[in-house]
Design a protein that fits this description.
12 strands, alpha/beta, three-stranded antiparallel β-sheet, 263 residues, disordered N terminus
Length: 263
């Protein structure tokens, strides 16, 4: 995941390679949210054999959705983003010649994930239109480190009642027996499980640790639509060894060579 020079990006953007060149993003340079490990880990929560229509809710520049499309040849990704500027970066990324290998299996939809009912359907998020949904929503509290970058603030600051609103939308647009995957901070686990209740069950919860001896910094949750099964705690993913290098498992997960849950 590093800037490359295979094409000339606009002055305000960089073209960045992911999955060791399997796909590329166009991202704002020096401002806004720039995708990293969180998006790659989230994408790896989708089973390797997934084939169907996927909604990447709050897609930003499209990192997670494109990572799924790159790893799963049968996946078709809809990159759902409210911010017109970030959606523009995603749309321009899809036109890059470096992404020709994706075969046109991704599209951008400018829509607000929090819309309800007829307004949501009119925006392009119809009921039961997707086989799965993934989300890497904002998870900084308003009181967390402030930034003067409005584009970054919109991507990072968690509005009130966010998880209930986003998971409500996922429950509406995902087909019965489809699934939802999301990544968040451990502090949000209680709110997420409450929002899943009655909508998604069989929640597999995987803690993500920077190092084995440290507390988890993220949780990834994958749950099935309409299931009444209870949650289960999966073995953790440890990102780094004693130094700064990725562990072999984390390297495979973050570079599109393995799924997070082993499927």
């Amino acid at each position: 995941m590093m800037p490359v020079e295979t094409a000339d990006p606009p002055a305000e953007a960089t073209i960045d390679a992911f999955h060791r060149g399997a796909f590329f993003l166009l991202q704002p340079a020096g401002r806004g949210h720039r995708a990293g490990l969180d998006a790659m880990i989230l994408a790896a929560a989708v089973p390797s054999g997934f084939a169907g229509r996927l909604a990447d809710l709050g897609a930003g520049a499209g990192a997670a959705g494109l990572a799924v499309a790159a790893r799963c040849p049968g996946a078709r990704a809809v990159l759902v983003e409210r911010d017109a500027e970030m959606a523009g970066y995603a749309r321009r990324a899809l036109a890059l010649p470096q992404n020709a290998a994706l075969g046109g299996r991704a599209e951008v939809l400018v829509a607000d994930v929090t819309l309800c009912g007829e307004a949501r359907a009119a925006a392009g998020l119809a009921d039961r239109a997707f086989d799965c949904a993934i989300m890497n929503p904002p998870f900084n509290a308003p009181a967390d480190r402030a930034t003067s970058d409005a584009l970054k603030r919109r991507a990072h600051v968690m509005p009130p009642d966010m998880f209930r609103q986003w998971i409500r939308t996922a429950a509406a647009i995902v087909k019965p027996d489809g699934f939802l995957a999301l990544i968040a901070r451990p502090a949000s686990l209680e709110a997420i499980l409450a929002a899943l209740a009655g909508r998604f069950g069989e929640a597999s919860i995987m803690p993500i640790h920077a190092r084995a001896e440290e507390d988890a910094i993220r949780v990834v949750i994958r749950a099935r639509h309409g299931s009444r099964g209870g949650p289960a705690l999966s073995p953790p993913l440890v990102l780094h060894d004693a130094g700064r290098a990725l562990t072999p498992r984390a390297d495979a997960v973050c570079n599109g060579k393995a799924s997070l849950f082993g499927d």
